Amino acid sequence: MKTTSKIFLQLSLLFAITLLSAAEIPYLTGRVTDNAEILSESTRRSLTAVLKEHEDRTRNQIAVLTVATIGGESIEEYAADVFEAWKLGRKDEDNGILIVVVPNDRRMRIEVGYGLEATLTDAMAGRIIQSVMTPRFRNGDYDGGITDGVRAVIDVLEGGDTGDIQSNITAAEESESLGFDTPDLPITERILLGAFIFGIIGLFTVIGVLTPGVGWFLYFFLIPFWAMFPIIVLGTGGALVCLITYLIAFPVAKLLLKNTGWYKKAKEDLRTKGKASIGGFSFSSGGSGGSWSSGSSGFSGGGGSSGGGGASGSW
């Protein structure tokens, strides 16, 4: 009986924690629900008017929602939950669209109803986020970013002139081709993952630089790690920069250390004694080129529905 009660209590606590951790879905108060209070009154009024005019012309329902934060919940799940609760779009047409902006988490999403996925594709929604809204948000211009995003969505839905959108996309892609295409992760997650990833491969890189012999084995061994792991944190552009830096900096550092006294001594000790001590670590040579071990105690490392179409972004 006690065991059953304990299990029931644990399940109750787990259920309560799940409820508390879920972000609250606000009431649908209008076409623009600015719970984060990032829009000016004039912008809210003008957006409401523009969205109403679009609905009168096309029957499409577009809503804008801003919330300060959604905690640890994913923007995709939150947007889908709000879309389902608000039932955007007409039941037999599924022609609703939800634009969600979460300023404190620096996340946003355009959630698209089933009936409009062929018109406002995931790729186009992603481009509107990256080339139209993100540049404005990075400058703190929420009024301009959301207004331009809404107008871009309407242009696509009404088959209007999307030349400005395409030119913005082209300009953004050209500028980003020489920079960092930031992955779709919150800044806190990128910092934590970066500390983990660069901490590990950085440690082995330092060992490779400081160690005679086996250091060159580590140089070639770590190339695929420096090529792939940074993508998670910095995107493909950032990973490429990291790889090129590693390929050049590692040999240069080895050459600079080659003529230092302690490096020469370590190399001689490995050749004559089969082992050497560098910075508290003991290294021993072997048939495969070498191995290393720590010399201390060690270390450790409206009725409408959405099928999930749309795109997310961060800034």
Describe the structure.
- It is a single chain.
- This protein has a five-stranded mixed β-sheet with strand order 1-2-3-4-8. A three-stranded antiparallel β-sheet has the order 5-6-7.
- By secondary structure, it is of the alpha/beta class.
Key descriptive features of the protein:
single chain; 315 residues; alpha/beta; 5-stranded mixed β-sheet; 3-stranded antiparallel β-sheet; 10 helices; 56% helix
Strands of the widest sheet, in order across it, are 1-2-3-4-8
- Report the radius of gyration as a whole number of Å: 27 Å
Structural class: alpha/beta
Q: Give the % helix.
A: 55-70%
Mean pLDDT equals: 77
The 3D shape can be described as: elongated
What is the strand and helix layout of this fold?
Blueprint: H1 2-21, E1 32-34, H2 41-58, E2 61-66, H3 75-86, E3 96-102, E4 107-113, H4 122-138, H5 142-157, H6 163-176, H7 187-210, H8 214-228, H9 230-258, H10 261-272, E5 275-278, E6 281-284, E7 291-294, E8 306-314
Parallel strand pairs: 1-2, 2-3
Antiparallel strand pairs: 3-4, 4-8, 5-6, 6-7
Helix pairs in contact: 2-5, 4-5, 4-6, 7-8, 7-9, 8-9
